[in-house]
Amino acid sequence: MKKNNKNSDKKQILSEWRWIYANFPKFDLINDAKMPSDHSATLGHKFDHFKRKNYKSAYNTALEDESYSIYLNDDSIIYFYYIFDVNEKVVGHNLAYVPPPNNYNFLDEEISISKYLRVDYDKTGYKSIIHTLVHLHIGIDNPEFRIPISHYLSPFDFLYIILKYMYHNEQDIVDKLVTNKQKDCLLTNEESDKLRIIFGN
To answer: Would you give the distance in Å from CA 78 to the centre of its chain?
Structure first.
């Protein structure tokens, strides 16, 4: 039976996403933001992982369908997609930062592809330490390269990472995205003893 949880993960994520939608004009880098499509057990649009062979077509489809969550003024896009259990607890997510494909020359295209970021929370393929539940992918050419992250990321968390570390926004701008919500660590004790990333708390 579904519990009426006022502090559920889903309510928190929906609140952050709605705030981004309502306030995106305050961020110079953001051209557009979409309200999440809410399908009870999911928020956002599920997207295929970008690969070298489908990068341009997947990017163009995202623009045509407006299936992205955020559209930046340099034509990069951001995806948020979350999966919840019956108690509205996050049990999976795919978050991605997708720079636009560059058609001018090979070097520029390689730079775009190398800046691609994806953070997955996925139980499929789990393997202690090398394929943790939540992990960061950088670029698209080495899908086996995964950096462990201690907890799931909210929309504020992911947008903060992009605006602060990809675009070097001033702290007073990204401070609006800082939240004190505590998240459970999703790493085992053994994984926690190794190198991992902790965002916020």
So the answer is: 7
pLDDT in tens, 85-112: 999 999 999 999 999 987 555 555 666 7
The answer, as to whether pTM is greater than 0.70, is yes
- Paired with 116 in beta bridges are none
Query: How many residues are listed for the chain in this entry?
Result: 201
Are the C-beta atoms of 88 and 5 separated by less than 8 Å? yes
